[in-house]
Write a structure and sequence with these properties.
There is one protein chain. The chain has 343 residues and is an alpha/beta fold. The chain has a single domain, classed as Rossmann fold, CATH 3.40.50. It contains ten helices and eleven strands. A hairpin with a 5-residue loop joins β1 and β2. α1 crosses α6 and α3 packs across α10. The longest helix has 23 residues. About 2% of the residues have low confidence.
Amino acid sequence: MRILRILLIVLAVLMAALGLLIGLGTAKAPPPLAALASPFRGVDFSDLPPLKHYSARDGASLAYREYSPAAATPGSAASPAYPRAAVLLHGSSASSMSLHALAKELAAGGVTVYALDLRGHGDNRPHGDVQYIGQFDDDVADFVRFARPQLPGARWTLVGFSAGGGLALRIDGGPDGNEFDRYLLLAPYLNFRAPTQRQPGSKPPPGSSAAKSNLQSFVAPYTGRLFAVYALDSIGIHWFDGLPVMAFAVPADSQSFTQTYTMRLLLAFSPRPDYLADIRNIHKPTAVIVGGADEFSIPEQFAPVIHSQRPDVQVTIVPGMGHLDLITNPVALAAARAAVLKE
């Protein structure tokens, strides 16, 4: 009885400690980062397409933007005889608007482009949450099944940027991997422990225009709550997965950006914890592009990590490009366009 009593006391203390971490282990949202807006200053948003909507399997009406292809040379890779379509996935906190320059670049090459507002982002409310881990996978699959009949015979490419690149890898290496014919991952987020991830406090990469490469300058993790929720998740208790565990350096009154993420959204917006298995299980031809001056990733680590599992994946480093340059800078946009149009 004494041992049981001690065990119960220890359990009660642990649960009380976890409760305190969940309740008090939050963090103040970081101030908006002006450096994050600077790469977009050269982007013309005057021709931003209006939002359209499709129905997901749970009945939710989710937003996307459609870009019609420019006329292409007959017989070329993106001519009407060989139609191409691309679905674009944005990065953390963002929306389809952030992919406007990339979408226009691909459309100019004759590709029909669909830029999604992922659930919990952009026009899709409420912000910052999903109903279950894997819901993004289902939403993307629902979209391509909705859009595919509009382009019979097209070759479909899923393009993901940053966290969206991690989501694209998750889909590529998961049960819905055959929904697309090709995948393009732009500076994909793999895992916070992955060798590709630049750690907080590290020096800015050579050529970077960012004042900081510290992840905490953009993201404020609720460290105590993250630890507690993760610990409870590991023993099958998911009661707190809908609480915010991370805040972003975006305006508090923004209608376009998402201010916080719940645990289940955070886990849904990335590869599975065994990200190397996702790489091994890639279904279709896949390419990776990363900027040589990326502020959040370590460019030279992508090839060793990915080729350790799949030597057939093409990894390209675009010199001098920062993280957001991949979706705004003409040099990086041209590299993405070439990858999508590649035979």
